[in-house]
Amino acid sequence: MIASHLLAYYFTELHHDQVQKVDKYLYHLRLSEESLMDLSVRFRREMDRGLGRDTNPTASIKMLPTFVRSTPDGTEKGDFLALDLGGSNFRVLLVKVSTSGKQRVEMENQIYDIPEHLMKGCGSDLFDHIADCLADFLEKLGIKDKKLPLGFTFSFPCQQTKLDESVLLSWTKGFKASGVEGKDVVSLLRKAIKKRGDFDIDIVTVINDTVGTMMTCGYDDQRCEIGLIIGTGTNACYMEEMRHLELVEGDEGRMCVNTEWGAFGDDGSLEDLRTDFDRDIDAGSLNPGKQLFEKMISGMYMGELVRLILVKMTKEGLLFQGQTTPDLLASGHFQTSFVFAIENEKDNEGLLSTEKILIGLGLTPSAEDCVATQRVCQIVSTRAAHLCSAALTAVLRQIRDNKAAERLRTTVGVDGSVYKNHPQFGRRLHKMVRRLVPDCDVRFLRSEDGSSKGSAMVTAVAYRLATQQAERQRVLDTLRLSREQLLEVKRRMEEQISRGLARETHQQASVKMLPTFVRSTPDGTEHGDFLALDLGGTNFRVLLVRVRSGKRRSVEMHNKIYAIPQDTMQGTGEELFDHIVNCIADFLEYMGMKGSSLPLGFTFSFPCKQNKLDEGVLLKWTKGFKASGCEGEDVVGLLKDAVRRREDFDLDVVAVVNDTVGTMMTCGYEDPHCEVGLIVGTGTNACYMEEMRNVELVEGDDGRMCVNMEWGAFGDQGELDDVSTEFDRAVDELSAYPGKQRYEKMISGMYLGEVVRNVLLDFTARGLLFRGRLSERLKSRGIFETRFLSQIESDRLALRQVRSILQHLGLTSSTCEDSILVKEVCSVVSRRAAQLCGAGLAAVVDRIRQNRQLPELRVTVGVDGTLYKLHPHFSTIMLETVRDLAPQCNVSLLQSEDGSGKGAALISAVACRLRDAGQH
Fold first, then answer.
1. Which helix (H) or strand (E) holds 57?
2. What are the angstrom distances between the C-alpha of 662 and each of 12, 548, 658, 681, 863?
3. How far is residue 800's CA from residue 822's CA, in Å, rounded to a whole number?
4. 91 with 111: CB under 8 angstroms?
5. Rounded distance, CA 713 to CA 614, Å?
6. Spatial distance between the Cα atoms of 515 and 532, rounded to a whole number of angstroms
7. SS3 state of residue 286
């Protein structure tokens, strides 16, 4: 026997010589880091081809969608069946998932054989056998009468079109059952169960073992987003961004992609790395030319690859004194499990095992033969680990780039006999991955019962998502408006417009329809220098506007912005107007115009009653203002009083207007069809040119006058109660003016973020969002700003940026799924706002058309306001709604540039033009 000499021999120079001899002989199987890096780049390129709709058919890496859209979040619960088919035997399991204080999974299972004749026989017989075993399992557990949800792990290349449908592309791992390729395996299983007729189950999901592994490990480690199998076969899956997955509709969120990476190289891209031994393996396989990457890595081929090398080396006289044996020459007789035993480095047990195995093959090995055989195994398995690491590196780089992370921290769930049983494989894989992607912190988590427990977890996640989705949609449906509801809003707006214009009903109308005494839009002949004062929010502006007429007509503006402190907004009226006048004085000095008395247009964006162009009585403060002694007073008078108190300059206030009228006038200067002004910003309002005969609050029937609708108060008499939700009521009750400005509170920028925040609070309380964990910051009123809606709904914004907004709100552990839902809430709330605004606008343009008795009206709406300007979809949805509800009106939208400031100056210019014309 050689065994007694083996250990001593191991440390001699002869051992070194044998290793060198094998290394030289198998030079092409030893890959450099540069080669592996190049392979990783090739693999990534092929992944991109697999993800593309046009390039997928010719890609060797198929990147198959699995329709698994979420990993476990720890709230899953219930009893689930799992069926795991992926080799020569299969398992049936009952998996109980509970969350009573702590995540727990209990499993009962039974293993059943699949006889060789069924693996390679008729497909219907194979599925009948599976159904029989399933019935046996249910009978033994006494649950045959229950219809439990089942997850089916089917570990072969499949094309999925939904979570419970999977068409087998090709058999692998020695299976050849006829009539199954090209068929949906779930249908075949359902058919076999139905044929028996003595039990029923709900097949919810079908997955492969790789996805099962990721899901199992994802239950224990929520960072797990990659599944890897290195066993009889090899494969990987990972969570890919939907926007890259062109084979599936939609670009929100993520979906698990089954790479089917075993087929990498089937297009010839691995030819420079394949050896004659690889070609021999392929030629003798059941599927020549297919799964070439898998044949270089997996357990089904590793032992055979070692055998072919040993045979060739023996025939060349390099081993066993040139003597082969029938067992060494027989395909499949050198098992992959031999490789595991031979490479055991513990107390040199590997060399002792080598001798025993070689003798079992009828050989008479020398000590040198044992060392050389061990080295062959090391080279073959190291190459497999390194090839695997190169492919995994490509996946890690894809995820890191998707997240735009400088450093990726992630977990890879791993299963498979090679990874679990080979003594060195895992260590070699981990080490090379860390060398190839030093900017990724990768944890490898060994899966226990990956594919089986995993299919139950996918089923549990699917059940959780379906239940949660139904509940979310039930809530969100209260915020979605039908066309009939929008038409009714339009009708009620029309009714309130008529009531507001009529002398008898004006007092009771929610839409006040205030005359502005602006009787004309610009005609292009306006000329001169004008001051404008723009007050409508927490900042205000003073402007110098130079209007030039003629061929080169133009408007040149200079302005300065001043803040209004909170205590001034809510102090006395004298303090407020003194502050405004001080800022005007500062501006005149800044412009070198101290002592000048130019015509001034005063944009005052609060509800006012006007008796003439230069007089505006404040009806009520809005937008957070509460300065005392102003409501019921003429704001022009209050401004002039403040000027008198300063005593160092004078003002010629020609016109007081609100921002809506200013917007209409600014756009009217650009487009003569502009006869409607609309603001959708902090607040919302509209104005339009009404026929004088309908404006009963003002004497005279000739011509037209611009009417300031003050439509934000629409709904204050219950007109919107049937489309209002609990979230609107919550926002209203805690606002500065409960019960007032109800339309504005459903549309404008001051309130939309707060509506969204209330929906998010409700979802979190129901456990539908953020795993039921509420951040303290989200409890704060006003913390979810309306600008977040505009940012979150931007088409260019990736979900990782949505998450950064959520992290700013203290939701540091929010998931990708949370981001998708937050985006959906924002979308529903802002869509409703745009539609409600569109319904109101449809009422206005239809009224203008009917006033003029036109079959069709062409009209332009001048629009201003931060929400309108910054929100990516508001204008489109609003215009679609107007055109749908007022089909006889050809409506265009014109965005106003500096409507409120420039508009006030233009009104002053028009007023001066009309006044001068009157004098002459």
1. none
2. 97, 18, 6, 14, 10
3. 12
4. yes
5. 24
6. 21
7. coil
Positions of the chain with pLDDT under 70: 1-14, 100-102, 449-452, 795-798, 898-900, 917-920
pLDDT tens digits, 673-701: 999 999 999 889 999 999 999 999 998 88
CA within 13 Å, CB half, 43: 26
Q: What is the pTM of this model?
A: 0.69
Q: What is the largest CA-CA distance in the chain?
A: 130
What's the CA dihedral at 389, 390, 393, 395 to 10 degrees?
Answer: -100
DSSP of 312-353: HHHHTTSSGGG---HHHHSTT-S-HHHHHHHT--GGGHHHHH
Q: Which helix (H) or strand (E) holds 861?
A: strand 857-864
Report the distance separating Cα 834 and Cα 829, nearest Å.
9
561 has which bridge partners? 541
Nearest Cα neighbor of 531 from 580, 471, 480 is: 580
Q: 373 near 310, Cβ under 8 Å?
A: yes
Paired sense of beta strands 149-154 and 202-207, if any:
parallel
Q: In what order do the strands lie in the sheet with 539-548?
A: 554-563, 539-548, 528-535, 599-604, 652-657
> In what side-by-side order are the strands of the sheet with 202-207?
104-113, 89-98, 78-85, 149-154, 202-207
What's the rounded Cα separation, in Å, for the pair 291 and 282?
Answer: 9
DSSP-based three-state secondary structure for 581:
helix
Interhelix angle 367-403/33-51, rounded to 10 degrees, is 50
Cα distance between residue 212 and residue 116, in whole Å: 25
Please say whether the beta carbons of 906 and 666 come within 8 A.
Answer: yes
Kind and range of the H or E run holding 197: none
Show the tokens assigned to 227.
């599944």
Q: Which residues touch 287 (CB under 8 Å, ≥6 apart)?
A: 170, 171, 172
Note whether 45 and 59 are within 8 A (CB).
no
C-alpha span between 242 and 458 (Å, rounded): 18
CB 264 within 8 A of CB 270: yes
CB atoms inside a 10 Å sphere around CB 853: 6
At 5 the pLDDT is: 54
Residue 741 contacts residue 731 (beta carbons within 8 Å): no
Q: Give yes or no for a contact between 754 and 745, defined as CB atoms under 8 angstroms apart.
A: no
Residue in the block written with tokens 């390039």:
55
763 contacts 475 by C-beta, under 8 angstroms: yes
Sign of CA dihedral 517, 520, 524, 525: negative
* Catalytic status, residue 605: yes
Q: At residue 720, what is the residue type?
A: L
659 catalytic? Reply is yes
The one catalytic residue in 70, 269, 298, 605 is: 605
Residues shown for the chain: 920
Q: Please report where in the chains the tokens 């001798």 appear, as a residue.
A: 355
Nearest alpha-carbon partner for 302 in 192, 132, 416, 464? 416
Catalytic, out of 266, 659, 716, 846: 659
- Is 819 in a helix, a strand, or coil? helix
Scored b (16 or more CB within 10 A) or e, 507-521 reads: eebbbbbbbbbbbbb
- Residue 704 annotated to the active site: no
* Paired residues of 168 in beta bridges: 158
Residue among 511, 353, 455, 594 at smallest CA distance from 66: 455
- What is the β-pairing status of strands 599-604 and 528-535? parallel
Tokens of 96: 């109980």
- Are 660 and 677 contacting, i.e. CB atoms less than 8 angstroms apart? yes
